Amino acid sequence: MRKFIIKRILISIGILFCVTFILYAVMRCLPSSFVENMAMNLSQGAGAKSYDEWMEQLNATYGMDKNIVSGFFTWLGGAVQGQFGDSWKYTVPVVEKFKEVIGVSFVMGAIAFVLELIIAIPLGVIAATKQYSRLDYGITAGALVGISLPTFFFATILKLVFSVKLGWFDLYGLVGRNYNQLDRMGQILDMGYHLVLPIATLVIVSVGSLMRYTRTNMLEVLNSDYIRTARAKGLSERKVIYHHAFRNTLIPLVTIVGGSLPGLFAGALITETLFSIPGIGWTSYQAMVIGDIPFSMFYLSFLAVLTLAGNLISDVLYAVVDPRVRLT
């Protein structure tokens, strides 16, 4: 296992190097950037230097006057030391801005992910054990509705019903107008109150696919020979399902759990935008729109690291939950 993990880490480092180079090259080839926009604005002032002169000065300031390969290794040298530069849009160090906005996105993603597991897996198991019953059809229909609904549409429906019609929640924002007058616990509850609808949106639009996946795998396991043997030995149906079948159903689900790691930090761009939640998804989108290369490079590289780590965790957990897997 130790040799396997070390080997995978070394391979992941090589993959990460290639991914970050491709990302940097793409960023440098964008048709518009912060440098160009700033040069355009500065050149329009009275008595200002020309656009080309400002471009030359700004490119030298931000290291954009180098070719892609040289610029990438300059960026990589700083990244290895934890120096990712200052965000062009937010005018603060990239890491500082990231720490400021990642918390709310992580809380939203983590709560939504836990609720998704709690809801989807039991419903998937129940649907499989009650195959072709009314309960199975009802659960499946609900899952298909959740899968089919676009995030922006469902979020708008929730806002219309619970914010406009019933007035239970605010339409926008992470905090209320009296936030600064509350004590610490009151501020936490106020933020939690404003996250109810965004989290509900994330859960409902994502729970259907996991439920269907669980149901499919559970049905496959229930039709296995060893399940028929366990029933023939006289074991109770509850023990057959929850001790033998369910444990093996978890094996393919491990891949989904490990692969969900990047999603906890990626932020929900559409949901955060619709509810005006200042999370990492919305912040990164705003940075990419204006060509903020430092922030965009840090965010995309961070997601690449999480994706590689999630794949490694999935492989290790596979060996833990399935003794038949032997990593050599």
The Rg value, from CA coordinates, equals 25 Å
Helix/strand order, N-terminal first:
HHHHHHHHHHHHHHH
Mean of the pLDDT scores? 83
Please report the number of helical segments.
15
Low-confidence stretches: none
Shape: globular
Q: Level of helix content?
A: over 70%
Helix-and-strand structural type: mainly alpha
What does this structure look like?
The radius of gyration is 25 Å and the shape is globular. Helix 1 packs antiparallel against helix 15 (293-321) and helix 2 (34-43) crosses helix 3 (51-61). By secondary structure, it is mainly alpha-helical. It is built from 15 helices and no strands. The model has no long low-confidence stretch (mean pLDDT 83). The chain has helices at residues 2-28, 34-43, 51-61, 68-80, 94-129, 134-148, 151-165, 184-194, 196-222, 225-232, 237-259, 261-266, 269-274, 280-289, 293-321. The longest helix has 36 residues, at 94-129. It is 75% helix and 0% strand. The protein starts with a helix and ends in a 7-residue tail after the last helix.
Entry summary:
Helices cover 75% and strands 0% of the residues. By secondary structure, it is an all-alpha fold.
Tag the structure with descriptive keywords:
328 residues; mainly alpha; 75% helix
Helices and strands in order, then pairings?
Elements: H1 2-28, H2 34-43, H3 51-61, H4 68-80, H5 94-129, H6 134-148, H7 151-165, H8 184-194, H9 196-222, H10 225-232, H11 237-259, H12 261-266, H13 269-274, H14 280-289, H15 293-321
